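Sample intake sheet
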Amino acid sequence: MTARVGAILVVTALWVTAPRAADAQVWTVESDRPALGVSIGRASSIDSGTGPAWNATFELPMFPTWRLRADVGRVHWRFAEDMRGRGFPQRTAMTRASITLARTPPVPPTPVCGYIGGGPGVYWFPAPGNQGFTRFGLHALAGMEFALPRDRAKIVAELRVDGTRTEGTVNVSPLQGSAVLGVRWKLGR
Protein backbone atom coordinates (compact mmCIF):
# COMPACT_ATOMS: atom_id res chain seq x y z
CA MET A 1 0.00 0.00 0.00
CA THR A 2 1.40 3.35 -0.95
CA ALA A 3 1.32 6.46 1.23
CA ARG A 4 -1.18 8.02 -1.12
CA VAL A 5 -3.67 5.10 -0.82
CA GLY A 6 -3.17 5.04 2.97
CA ALA A 7 -3.91 8.76 3.22
CA ILE A 8 -7.08 8.34 1.14
CA LEU A 9 -8.26 5.47 3.38
CA VAL A 10 -7.58 7.47 6.59
CA VAL A 11 -9.39 10.56 5.25
CA THR A 12 -12.32 8.42 4.10
CA ALA A 13 -12.53 6.65 7.49
CA LEU A 14 -12.45 9.96 9.34
CA TRP A 15 -15.10 11.42 7.04
CA VAL A 16 -17.42 8.43 7.49
CA THR A 17 -17.06 8.21 11.29
CA ALA A 18 -16.79 11.91 12.14
CA PRO A 19 -19.85 13.46 13.79
CA ARG A 20 -21.76 15.72 11.46
CA ALA A 21 -23.30 19.06 12.22
CA ALA A 22 -27.01 18.60 12.74
CA ASP A 23 -29.27 19.79 10.00
CA ALA A 24 -31.14 22.96 10.81
CA GLN A 25 -34.44 22.08 12.43
CA VAL A 26 -37.23 23.25 10.23
CA TRP A 27 -40.66 23.28 11.83
CA THR A 28 -43.14 22.56 9.09
CA VAL A 29 -46.67 21.31 9.14
CA GLU A 30 -47.72 18.81 6.55
CA SER A 31 -51.21 19.16 5.20
CA ASP A 32 -53.18 15.95 5.60
CA ARG A 33 -54.89 14.20 2.77
CA PRO A 34 -58.69 13.90 2.60
CA ALA A 35 -59.98 11.26 5.02
CA LEU A 36 -63.06 9.13 5.73
CA GLY A 37 -63.90 8.00 9.23
CA VAL A 38 -66.37 6.14 11.42
CA SER A 39 -66.70 6.17 15.19
CA ILE A 40 -68.98 4.81 17.89
CA GLY A 41 -69.51 5.78 21.49
CA ARG A 42 -71.99 7.01 24.10
CA ALA A 43 -74.19 10.09 24.18
CA SER A 44 -76.28 11.78 26.83
CA SER A 45 -78.67 14.71 27.12
CA ILE A 46 -79.63 16.97 29.97
CA ASP A 47 -82.92 15.10 30.23
CA SER A 48 -80.92 12.16 31.66
CA GLY A 49 -81.21 10.22 28.42
CA THR A 50 -78.21 8.06 27.52
CA GLY A 51 -77.43 5.66 24.71
CA PRO A 52 -75.17 4.63 21.86
CA ALA A 53 -73.95 7.09 19.22
CA TRP A 54 -72.21 6.70 15.86
CA ASN A 55 -70.62 9.18 13.44
CA ALA A 56 -69.43 9.06 9.84
CA THR A 57 -67.07 11.83 8.70
CA PHE A 58 -65.43 13.18 5.57
CA GLU A 59 -62.53 15.54 6.15
CA LEU A 60 -60.66 17.89 3.80
CA PRO A 61 -57.45 19.76 4.61
CA MET A 62 -57.92 23.52 4.14
CA PHE A 63 -54.60 25.00 5.26
CA PRO A 64 -51.67 23.34 7.05
CA THR A 65 -53.42 23.59 10.44
CA TRP A 66 -57.10 23.81 9.42
CA ARG A 67 -59.53 21.11 8.29
CA LEU A 68 -63.10 21.25 7.02
CA ARG A 69 -65.19 18.28 8.07
CA ALA A 70 -68.69 17.13 7.16
CA ASP A 71 -70.27 14.52 9.38
CA VAL A 72 -73.48 12.62 9.88
CA GLY A 73 -74.35 11.02 13.19
CA ARG A 74 -77.13 9.26 15.03
CA VAL A 75 -77.86 8.92 18.73
CA HIS A 76 -80.31 6.49 20.35
CA TRP A 77 -81.45 7.63 23.80
CA ARG A 78 -83.19 5.70 26.52
CA PHE A 79 -84.65 7.94 29.19
CA ALA A 80 -84.95 7.01 32.85
CA GLU A 81 -88.62 8.06 32.78
CA ASP A 82 -91.32 8.27 30.15
CA MET A 83 -91.02 11.58 28.30
CA ARG A 84 -94.41 11.37 26.55
CA GLY A 85 -95.62 14.46 28.37
CA ARG A 86 -92.83 16.33 26.59
CA GLY A 87 -93.56 14.72 23.23
CA PHE A 88 -91.07 11.85 23.38
CA PRO A 89 -91.38 8.13 24.10
CA GLN A 90 -89.03 6.51 26.61
CA ARG A 91 -86.75 5.55 23.72
CA THR A 92 -85.97 8.04 20.96
CA ALA A 93 -83.25 9.02 18.52
CA MET A 94 -81.66 12.06 16.95
CA THR A 95 -79.99 12.30 13.54
CA ARG A 96 -77.63 15.15 12.77
CA ALA A 97 -75.63 16.56 9.87
CA SER A 98 -72.99 19.15 10.62
CA ILE A 99 -70.02 21.05 9.25
CA THR A 100 -66.94 21.52 11.44
CA LEU A 101 -63.97 23.83 11.04
CA ALA A 102 -61.20 22.12 13.04
CA ARG A 103 -57.74 23.38 14.00
CA THR A 104 -54.68 21.31 14.78
CA PRO A 105 -51.65 22.76 16.57
CA PRO A 106 -48.81 24.07 14.37
CA VAL A 107 -46.19 21.51 15.42
CA PRO A 108 -44.16 18.97 13.45
CA PRO A 109 -46.06 15.82 12.49
CA THR A 110 -46.09 13.38 15.39
CA PRO A 111 -47.94 10.11 16.00
CA VAL A 112 -50.29 11.89 18.46
CA CYS A 113 -52.07 15.12 17.56
CA GLY A 114 -54.90 17.04 19.22
CA TYR A 115 -57.56 19.17 17.54
CA ILE A 116 -60.48 21.44 18.42
CA GLY A 117 -63.33 22.73 16.30
CA GLY A 118 -66.94 23.74 15.96
CA GLY A 119 -69.65 24.74 13.54
CA PRO A 120 -73.34 24.63 12.60
CA GLY A 121 -75.58 21.61 12.34
CA VAL A 122 -79.08 20.41 11.46
CA TYR A 123 -80.74 18.01 13.94
CA TRP A 124 -83.76 15.83 13.19
CA PHE A 125 -85.83 14.37 16.02
CA PRO A 126 -88.58 11.80 15.46
CA ALA A 127 -91.83 12.28 17.33
CA PRO A 128 -94.76 9.93 17.99
CA GLY A 129 -97.02 9.16 15.03
CA ASN A 130 -94.23 9.22 12.42
CA GLN A 131 -93.96 12.97 12.85
CA GLY A 132 -90.60 14.58 13.26
CA PHE A 133 -89.11 18.01 13.57
CA THR A 134 -85.87 19.71 12.66
CA ARG A 135 -83.79 22.06 14.79
CA PHE A 136 -80.73 24.09 13.91
CA GLY A 137 -77.85 24.32 16.32
CA LEU A 138 -74.15 24.64 16.98
CA HIS A 139 -71.54 22.20 18.20
CA ALA A 140 -68.02 22.21 19.63
CA LEU A 141 -65.59 19.30 19.77
CA ALA A 142 -62.12 18.34 20.95
CA GLY A 143 -60.22 15.21 20.07
CA MET A 144 -56.97 13.30 19.81
CA GLU A 145 -55.62 11.38 16.80
CA PHE A 146 -53.16 8.48 17.10
CA ALA A 147 -51.41 7.72 13.79
CA LEU A 148 -51.01 4.04 12.92
CA PRO A 149 -47.89 2.70 11.14
CA ARG A 150 -47.53 3.70 7.49
CA ASP A 151 -49.64 6.82 8.15
CA ARG A 152 -52.70 5.48 6.30
CA ALA A 153 -55.09 5.44 9.24
CA LYS A 154 -55.57 7.09 12.62
CA ILE A 155 -57.36 6.07 15.80
CA VAL A 156 -59.58 8.97 16.89
CA ALA A 157 -60.99 9.79 20.36
CA GLU A 158 -63.41 12.72 20.47
CA LEU A 159 -65.67 14.64 22.86
CA ARG A 160 -68.53 16.64 21.36
CA VAL A 161 -71.24 18.99 22.68
CA ASP A 162 -74.28 19.89 20.55
CA GLY A 163 -76.71 22.69 21.36
CA THR A 164 -80.05 23.09 19.58
CA ARG A 165 -82.82 25.66 19.64
CA THR A 166 -85.98 24.81 21.56
CA GLU A 167 -89.27 26.09 20.24
CA GLY A 168 -92.84 25.06 19.64
CA THR A 169 -94.97 22.68 21.65
CA VAL A 170 -92.47 19.84 21.67
CA ASN A 171 -89.48 20.61 23.85
CA VAL A 172 -86.25 18.87 23.11
CA SER A 173 -83.15 18.91 25.26
CA PRO A 174 -81.13 21.92 24.12
CA LEU A 175 -77.81 20.29 25.02
CA GLN A 176 -76.40 16.88 24.14
CA GLY A 177 -72.91 15.48 24.61
CA SER A 178 -71.08 12.47 23.23
CA ALA A 179 -67.78 10.65 23.55
CA VAL A 180 -66.70 8.45 20.63
CA LEU A 181 -63.78 6.31 19.54
CA GLY A 182 -63.15 5.48 15.89
CA VAL A 183 -60.88 5.14 12.88
CA ARG A 184 -60.11 7.65 10.14
CA TRP A 185 -58.61 6.44 6.81
CA LYS A 186 -56.60 8.79 4.61
CA LEU A 187 -57.46 8.80 0.91
CA GLY A 188 -54.94 9.06 -1.91
CA ARG A 189 -51.17 8.68 -1.63
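Comment: The chain has one domain: 33-186. The chain has a mean pLDDT of 78.
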